[in-house]
Structures are given as structure tokens and as C-alpha cells.
Description:
Elements: H1 2-9, E1 14-16, E2 18-22, E3 33-37, H2 45-48, H3 50-56, E4 61-63, E5 73-75, E6 81-84, H4 90-96, H5 99-104, E7 107-112, H6 125-134, E8 140-148, E9 154-162, E10 169-172
Parallel strand pairs: 1-6, 6-7, 7-8
Antiparallel strand pairs: 2-3, 4-5, 8-9, 9-10
Amino acid sequence: MIWHLAIYDVKPRIVKVEEGTIPSTRQSTYFRRRQFISTCHIPGVLHACRASRNLALRRWKLSFAAGRQPPKIFFDFSCDTLFIPEDFRLGDFAERLNPVDRVKLSKMAISIKDLTSNDYAHNGFDLAWLLVKNFPSLTHLTLQRSIWTQCGQRKLNVVMLSGALENLVLSAVGGNGPSPNLSQ
């Protein structure tokens, strides 16, 4: 069937997770419910027609529910990479994330300013512990570090780690490499 070809023609995506809020009926912002969302494009085959959507839902599942909130992000755990931006608290995300999704996640990219921010104190030891403890199936990890030069230009250092998390293989991917394409 043509829809099978269309579904598996979609390349792996880098899906940036963000936090959104659902306004409550109460006046106070304290009662707003927090949820995980993404601006990553939803694959077109999920929109084409009922037949394509039913087939595409075998590949992309609504994932990353925050607490009791429904999941809002279409994600393929076999090939998509979840991107955590530098202003996002990974520890809070792991704590509130649906445990089933946490266990299935195998590819992650994290943007960090430095290893003393975003829950990652002590030269990355806390980051490593957080990842090992909360994401047992993680096999591919990309760390993106932003550095601002004296001229105000952004320089990126990207490091990719792959393999079983206990035996990560380190390979440098460049000093001035591009930022992950988040518009896919």
C-alpha cells in the first residue's frame, strides 16, 4: 500500500520538548496545569486521511504525558531523538514524565550552557547519574554546549555518545558544528 511507503519515507526527527500550561478555571496562575508540548512538525501522513492516520499511529505514538495530563507529542521511539533545550529542567522532566515513556526513550539530545547549570553540577557527574537512573534504555546521547565568543557570536560544541549507557563511546562531532535542525 502507498501509505506504508509514505510512512517509512519520513526521516528520523529531532523533537524539541517544551513546557506549556493549560489555563485553569481559577484566577490564580498557581492552579495552571503544566504539560509537555513540542513545536516539531507532525508527520503529514497523520493528517492525510483516516487510513493513513491509522497506519501512521503504529509508528508514531502520542507520548510524554506530564503527570495526569494527556500526552501531546507524536514520537517514534525507534528512531526519533528527544531534544532537551538548555532552559529546560531535565530533573523535573524525568520526575513528571510517564514511566513507560521514560523507559522506552533511547535517543536524547541535551543543550547545556555549562555543566553547573540545569541540574548538572559537579562536572557532569549529576547529569550522568540522572540519565542512568531515569532513562535505562538510553543508547544515544548528544550533548550540545553553547559558548558565546567575544564578538557575540554563538559557537557550538557538540559531543555524541552512543552505546549502552554504562559503556558509552565518545566521539567528537566538531567545534563549530550546526545546531540540531528542530524544524523537521
